[in-house]
Amino acid sequence: MQPIRILAALLVLSLVLAAPARAVTLLRDPDIEHGLKRLADPVLRAAGLSAERVDILVIDDPSLNAFVVDANSIFLHSGLILRMDTPAMLQAVIAHEAAHIANGHLMRRPVNLRNARNAAALGAVLAGIAGAAAGSGEFAAGAAAGLQGAAIRGFFSHTRAEENAADTSGMRYLHAAGIDLSGAVQLMDLFRGQESLSLTRQDAYARTHPLSRDRFRRVRALAEAQSGRAAPDPEAEYWFARAKGKLSAFQRSPKWTRTRAGESGFEDVRLMREAVAYHRSSDLGRALPAIDAAIARRPEDPYLHELRGQILMESRRIKPAVAAYARAAALAPRNALILGAYGRALLADGQVQEAARRLEQARARDGRDIRVLRDLAQAEAQMGNRGMASVLTAERYAMAGRLKDARIHAERAGDMLPRGSPGWRRAQDILVAAEAAENRRQ
After folding, report:
1. Do 394 and 409 meet the contact criterion of CB atoms below 8 Å apart?
2. Residues contacting residue 96 through CB under 8 Å, at least 6 positions apart
3. Among 35, 118, 318, 323, which residue carries the largest CB count within 10 Å?
4. Minimum mean pLDDT among 148-152, 308-312, 412-416: which range?
C-alpha cells in the first residue's frame, strides 16, 4: 500500500470522526510480529487469504479482544495473547477473525462507519497506520485511535449470524491446517461467562463478538466431530512461546520475568527474556551477556540481533547499536521495522545519507510507521531538503489525526518545492483532504 493512498483513506475517515477519544498504543516489534505471522500463516492459507498481505498487529490493551477492520490486518490485544495457554488457542482467534475477512463480513463496515461519531483519529487504525513513539523504547509505537463509546462498539461488532458463520469457517480452517480443534473449545470456554457480567465488567471481545452458551456447545460439537486430536506442532509451540515470552517480558515487571524466564522450556527464549528484563532494569552488564548467549544459539536470527541493537541504542551505545542493526538488516533485508531501526541508529551516529536511504527503504515497505516519517524528516532537514522534510512532517501529523498541524506543514512544503514535483503533489493531497475535513466540520 502506498503512503499517499494510506493518507487519503485516513483523511476521508477523519471527515466523519470528530470527538476526542482515548488513544491506543500499537505495539510494533519485528520479533513478536514474525512469531505471530508464523502461527497465522497456515490458518490464512487454509482460509484462502494471502499470508504475505495480512498483517497480525498487537494493540497494547490488557483486555481480551481481537478484531478486523479491513482485509489486510488482524488486530490482537496484548491481554488476549498473554491469556492464551497454547498456540492452538491463539490460532483459533486468528482463524475466527480470518473467517470474518474471507466471508465478506467487512462489507457492511462503511455504513457503520458513517454512524460512528465518537472516535477521533480512529482512521489511523482503520487505515492500518501504526506510528508515533510512545516513549523512548523501540517496542511501543502509538497511534491515535479511539475505541470507546457505543458507536465504536457498534462499528467493530458482529451479528450472531456472522459469529456462527465465522465459528464454522474458522474450525474448518483449523482442521485443514492440522491444528488441534480443542484450542477453539478452550477459547470459547474462556469467554463463556462474559455475557452474565455487567457491560462495564465484560471484556471487549464479549461486547464486539456476541457470545452464547449455544456457540460454545456448537464449537465443542464441531471439535468432537473430528476424530482424534492433531499432533503437536513443535514449530508452533516455539513461536508461540517466543512471541508471548517477549511480549510479557516488556509488559510484566523485570522481577516477574526473571522468575519465569525459563517456563517455556526453550533456552534461547529464556535468555532473550532475561536480556529484556535486565535491560529494563538498566543492567547492561547482564543484558548483553544474556542476548549474546541467545545469539550464540541462533546466530542467523535477525530478530535477536535487532534486540541487541535496541538494548545498545537505548543504553546510548550508538556505534555498537549500528553494528547490531546492520547485522539484523543483512539477515532480514525486507523487514521494514528492522530497516527503520537501523536508519534511526545511523541517524544518531551522524551517518545522515545512509540513514535516509535505509529509512526510505523502510517507508517503501511499510508506510504505517510514524517513527520512520519523523526520522526521515529529520534526515532530509539535515541534508538541507527542507521542503521534503515539511512534506514528511505533514504526513506524520495527518496520520496522527492532527490535520491542522498537517495543513501548516503541507502549505510550507508547497511553497518550497517545485510545482508539480512528487513531493509537491503529496503536499497538495494533504491540503485537499484537510480542507474537505474543515468544510465538513462547519
Report:
1. yes
2. 66, 166, 167, 170, 184, 209
3. 35
4. 148-152
Question: d(Cα 409, Cα 332) in Å, to the nearest integer?
Answer: 34
| pTM reported for the whole predicted model | 0.83
Assign 59 to helix, strand or coil.
strand
Q: CATH topology for 253-441?
A: 1.25.40
pLDDT in tens, 226-245: 766 778 899 999 999 999 99
- Cβ atoms within 10 Å of 52's Cβ, excluding its own: 9
Architecture of domain 3-225 in this structure: 2-Layer Sandwich (3.30)
Phi, psi of 56, rounded to the nearest 5 degrees: -110, 110
Residue 186 has a CB neighbour count (10 Å cut-off) of: 18
DSSP notation for 221-267: HHHHHS-S-PPP-HHHHHHHHHHHHHHHHHHS-HHHHHHHTTTTS-H
Per residue in 320-335, is it b (16+ CB within 10 Å) or e — as a string? bbbbbbbbbbebbeeb
The answer to whether domain 3-225 and domain 253-441 are alike in fold is no
Are the beta carbons of 208 and 158 closer than 8 angstroms? yes
The average confidence (pLDDT) of the chain is 81
**Are the C-beta atoms of residues 125 and 24 closer than 8 Å to each other?**
yes
Look at the block and give the residue holding cell 474448518: 172
Residues 352-406: pLDDT tens digits? 999 999 999 999 998 878 899 999 999 999 999 999 999 999 999 888 778 889 9
CA 337 – CA 50 distance, rounded (Å): 20
Q: Which residues face 27 on adjacent strands? A: 58, 140
Q: Within 13 Å, how many C-alpha atoms sit on residue 272's CB side?
A: 32
Q: Are 66 and 170 in contact (CB under 8 A)?
A: no
Strand duo 140-143 + 24-27: pairing: antiparallel
More confidently predicted of 136 and 163: 163
C-beta of residue 123 within 8 angstroms of C-beta of residue 11 = yes
From CA 210, how far away is CA 405, in angstroms rounded?
Answer: 40
Count of residues in the chain = 442
Q: 24 - beta bridge partners?
A: 143
Query: Where do the structural domains in the chain lie, given as residue ranges?
Result: 3-225, 253-441
